[in-house]
Fold this protein.
Amino acid sequence: MNEPKKQGRAHNWGNREISRTQMVPRVAELTGMTYQAVDLVIDTLLDQIKQTLAGGKAVQFRGFGSWSLRQTKAKLTPVYPYGKNGMTMLPARLKIRFRPAPHFQQMIPGWYKPAYQIKADAARAAKIDHRFKANRQPVEEPK
């Protein structure tokens, strides 16, 4: 049978989405802290990230990722529904960018490594291998 279309979000994440109300009890159970303490820690952490970004600085958690500000350029864009006749200028602005750490990215199912990263990794490995071979002492074979 045909199921009616779901209203609401554009993406249906199903069981892959977790909300704050689900996360706090999990963290409280794993750490042995109270629900209120975990909620306060999460509030404080998120507030500090927001304040740091509002101050124009980047935030970095090694092994997880980093938040930074990126400047966009001003651009002309059409005003719908007028198309080419109605154009407006969008001003330059700052956008928040999150970049996950490489180790964190590799833990995600379906993550792929862009071609330029594969080439860079191969070149880095060859360079390390070359240095290793240059410093290696010849090994005598047992008689």
Q: What stands out?
A: The CA atoms of residues 48 and 64 lie 17 Å apart. DSSP finds four helices and five strands in the chain. The longest helix spans residues 115-135. The helical segments are 20-31, 35-54, 102-107, 115-135.
